[in-house]
Amino acid sequence: MKFLVLLAAIGCASAASSNAVTCDECQAGAAGLVDHLLSEASLAEQGEILKAIVCPQLEDPDACMAAIDMWFGDMASCIYNHFVLEGDVCSRLGLCKKASIF
């Protein structure tokens, strides 16, 4: 949830004035966001939210909770790194220009 709020804030800031945030600032903010989201405390909070919201809806909530405890940290690392850093969210927001060979 915090991720979506921050992403929305970055989007609003870029919509208000694309000169307000530089490419370097966006990239630093994105890296900081990923660092925060992957911190031990944040992963624990996200895992608890998933267990409270998702697992009760499943046929075997205990297995769901065990799977989240076992795998969520690795999954989160893949997801956040891929979509925020490798997905180049700053270019998608129009704050950075991608290099072109043509």
What's the short story on this structure?
By secondary structure, the chain is an all-alpha fold.
Question: What Rg, in angstroms, do the CA atoms define?
Answer: 17 Å
How many individual helices?
Answer: 5
Can you give the helix content as a percent range? over 70%
**Strand proportion:** under 5%
SSE string, helices as H and strands as E: HHHHH
**How many beta strands in the DSSP annotation?**
0
Terminal CA distance reads: 39 Å
Can you characterise this structure?
This protein is mostly helical and 102 residues long. 73% of the residues lie in helices and 0% in strands. It has five helices and no strands. α2 runs antiparallel to α4 (61-86). The longest helix has 26 residues, at 61-86. It starts with a helix and ends in a 10-residue tail after the last helix.
